Each structure stands twice: as structure tokens, then as C-alpha cells.
Amino acid sequence: MRRTIIAGNWKLNKTTDEAVRFALELKQRVGSVTHCDVIVAPAFVALGEVYRAVKGTSIRVAGQNLFWEASGAYTGEISAPMLRSVGCDHVIVGHSERRQYFGESDETVNKRIKAALQHGLTPIFCVGETLEERESNRTFDVLTRQVVAGLEGIPAGRVAGIVVAYEPVWAIGTGRTATREQAQEAHAFLRALLAEQRGDHVAASCRILYGGSVKPGNVDGLMAQPDIDGALVGGASLDAASFARIVNYGPHASLAG
What we know:
There is one protein chain. The chain is of the alpha/beta class. The protein has one domain (5-255): Aldolase class I (TIM Barrel, Alpha-Beta Barrel), CATH 3.20.20. Helices cover 42% and strands 14% of the residues. An eight-stranded parallel β-barrel has the order 1-2-3-4-5-6-7-8, surrounded by five helices. Helix 1 (16-30) packs parallel to helix 2, helix 1 packs across helix 12 (240-247) and helix 7 packs across helix 9. The two termini are 27 Å apart.
């Protein structure tokens, strides 16, 4: 049984003080959940303070990105050891916004994943197609390229512990969401691809999250799909009540406060 993950990516939002106040509210709402792993990804400047605010609860902290070198003359970058030093145990890698706005490629995503693993961080490895790629029936080709290149040179045993996040680019921050059937189709394809590339055990173990305008109103249907193991939440993770309802999806909805 794959354990569910609900992760909130706060992106470029919340000052350190705002982030800490918000983390304390989340602590009250979801700090003691046991049915899933809860992860939040604040901005770099707030990571340490947020970690201290939620320490001892069920909430874990992730970086939004990392550089592949541990140290050096790389102005403005953040390394895996730096993330570990402020309490992170996960890191988002290859988010479509990083690919779109900052030129990250499949090759550099692969280097980031390897750096995360080397230093004991669990990568949340993002993949997904644009609207133009979906409308031209290239979704599976894009996912294959991203997965194969992103995981190149990583042993099967390590791949099993990587979290994959399927985020259709056309559904991120647009209000559009893949239907539960579209999401399940993509997740099933990704699991079959992992089985083909790294074996059935890896495919069965690897957790695959859905991201793309996940909200309280659609999370239950998404989470009911057999190959969807959780959610990577953007905008709705910035509201405590909404995020708590997503954490307490489906049969756990009565726990949302």
C-alpha cells in the first residue's frame, strides 16, 4: 500500500512572518493527521522558521528547488546540504514554472534529482505536458522523454523512493483541472512506464501525485483513482481551510476543521 502525500507548494508567496503564522494555523488543523504525509514548501527564506513552527507534528518541510552542486561560486543558488540544515527532507524538482521561466532542462533536472538523493532528500519530480502538446496527442511522448531523461543513471532501488508529480502545464494556476479520467490515464501510463524502465516493484512502490488546480471541490474524485497517490497543491495550499480539506480528502473529510 502506497502512503498518500498531500504537499503544498507556496511558490513566491508569504514573507517569513506570514509563513510562520500560517504554519501555526496549519499545525492546529492538520498537525496530527495520521492517514497521509503532509508536506509544505515555503520560500527559501522561511524554511527554517516554518520547520521550527511545525517540528514535532505530522507536517514536513520541502524546498521548492535546489542546485546540483553542494557548494561553490553559484550566486543565488541553494544546495541540498543547505536544505537539510534547515529541516527539509523533501525537495521539488523540475516544476513546470522552473522549466518555463528559468530554462531548466531534462538534463539539469536529472542532476538535481541525483544531488537530492546523494544528500538524503526525497525528490518530488515534476513532469507534465503543455496544452499544445496535449492537443497534438503528444502527452505520452512528452512524459516518456521527461521520465527517461530525468531518471537516467539512477539505480532502480533509488527510483522506488522518488515521488513523481504529474502536473499538466495547462492546468497549473489556470483554474482548469484534468478530469479524474484524464489524470488517472496519465498516472497509469507513468506507472506502466516505470515498470517497463525499472521493473514492477519500482512501479508498485513509487508514489505519483497529481498537481494542477487541485481544490476541495475536486480532490475527492481525484484521490479515488487507483494510480493517484496524492496531490501537489498550489493556490489552494495558501488557504488553511482549503488545504486542510484537501489533506482530509474523501473518507477523512469529517476531520477537516
